[in-house]
Design brief:
Oligomer: single chain
Shape: globular
Strand content: 5-15%
Order of helices and strands: HHHHHHEEEEHEHEHEHHHHEHEHEHEHHE
Distance between the termini: 44 Å
CATH superfamily of the largest domain: Aldolase class I
Largest sheet: 8 strands, parallel, barrel
Strand order of the largest sheet: 4-5-6-7-8-9-10-11
Length: 406
């Protein structure tokens, strides 16, 4: 059995962006012995989420359980994976400087966004097609968000309806929208979300031009299943999506993506929902959003899935938060894997942080208990870092705690 895990992992390694991160080694024998040892640990899969030491233990199980194409869709970035790697590298390049002689027995992690107090700055980013990773899909994530009272965003390409998720979550989630030039369809979905009680729409703007997802393509080649019954001949990601039920799907999908300033104005004109724009990576765009009445932004490069050679989101965050200057909330996603990453993002001005792949690892590994374990681990790590840093509230976290590697 151990040999099987080793063979499977080495197959994964050959299609993984990890090779790029370790110098494009062609043979595992060329690896540093310490790194080789760490990679070998991946074969020791846990059998229960409570056994997880960190969230990567759950990622290993999800990779082992999921069909190759489904795992590839979750794991892929764009082309050479440099944008996805940059998101992680940005956090690694930041070091924390602690303050001592403080009473840190009681720690308050609560934040306020749009007048709502959340017990944690950790939020659930929108990801599509979650039933591809577990039969419970978005429902499992919503139950976990309900348990921990987390801010949750739901993709308009979700595999569960907005109405059902709002009921499970116990309050309306934030509705994420991909707008296209067939504006009627986009606005229909927007109005449906508003009828369901949603108070915030999250407009994603960072997928212009598309991008070749090479890692996904490699994993698809390893998948021997018949995918036609679920996806059709084109492996369409749009079949069976509840939010597309009431629209002209062909007109919507075949029209180009639309992310111009006029769209911001039109959305503000037709809905009372607050408008958050997700995908901002430049301070000038943040300023433009404010000029057009946007209520909040998410600093994001789509997890490295849409733009080649992107800077890590944590690297662009300080310029954006400086320009915004607390006029609207600023959230961030991309590359957050540790409680220390949450702290670093807040120190550089973010009001909250959102995770995507980490909770999908939990979902793909053990369903709802896996998602809950991811939240448990990151929350415990974050509280621990707050104590280590001598901070007992979010307001005490500041840029003076962060130093960049030279």
């Amino acid at each position: 059995m151990a040999d099987k895990y080793k063979r499977d992992f080495l197959k994964f390694l050959l299609t993984s962006p990890l090779l790029a991160a370790i110098g494009n080694a062609q043979e595992t024998e060329d690896l540093d012995p310490d790194l080789k040892y760490i990679l070998e640990l991946k074969k020791l899969l846990i059998s229960d989420p409570e056994e997880a030491i960190n969230i990567f233990d759950l990622e290993a199980v999800a990779r082992d359980k999921l069909p190759p194409a489904h795992y590839g869709y979750m794991a892929t970035g764009v082309t050479d994976e440099q944008s996805q790697l940059a998101n992680r590298e940005g956090y690694r390049n930041l070091k924390l400087t602690a303050r001592r002689i403080n009473d840190v027995r009681e720690v308050d992690t609560s934040v306020e966004i749009f007048g709502r107090t959340w017990p944690s700055p950790l939020a659930i980013a929108p990801t599509s097609s979650q039933k591809a990773f577990h039969p419970e899909g978005e429902s499992a994530v919503a139950w976990a968000a309900n348990k921990y009272d987390l801010l949750m965003m739901l993709s308009n390409f979700s595999s569960t309806s907005i109405e059902e998720i709002n009921e499970i979550r116990g309050e309306p989630v934030w509705f994420q929208l991909y707008a296209r030039a067939h504006l009627e369809s986009s606005l229909q979905m927007l109005k449906r979300a508003e009828r369901a009680g949603c108070e915030v729409v999250v407009l994603t703007v960072d997928l212009m031009g598309g991008g070749r997802r090479e890692t996904l393509s490699r994993f698809i080649k390893r998948d021997t299943r018949d995918c036609v019954p679920c996806h059709g001949e084109e492996r369409s990601p749009y079949r069976g999506r509840p939010m597309l039920d009431e629209i002209d799907v062909d007109a919507y999908i075949e029209s180009p993506r639309l992310y111009d300033a006029d769209l911001l104005n039109q959305i503000k004109d037709v809905t009372d929902m607050k408008l958050v724009v997700k995908g901002i990576t430049h301070p000038d765009d943040a300023e433009k959003c404010i000029e057009h009445g946007v209520d909040g932004i998410v600093v994001s490069n789509h997890g490295g899935r849409g733009q080649v050679s992107a800077r890590g989101t944590i690297d662009v965050l300080p310029d954006i938060t400086t320009r915004v200057n607390k006029r609207i909330p600023v959230l961030i996603d991309g590359g957050i894997r540790r409680g220390s990453d949450i702290y670093k993002a807040l120190a550089l001005g973010a009001d909250a942080v959102a995770i995507g792949r980490p909770y999908l690892w939990g979902l793909g590994s053990f369903g709802r208990p896996g998602v809950e374990k991811v939240i448990d681990i990151l929350s415990a790590e974050f509280k621990g870092v707050m104590r280590q840093m001598g901070t007992t509230s979010i307001a005490q976290i500041s840029a003076s705690s962060v130093m960049k590697n030279l």
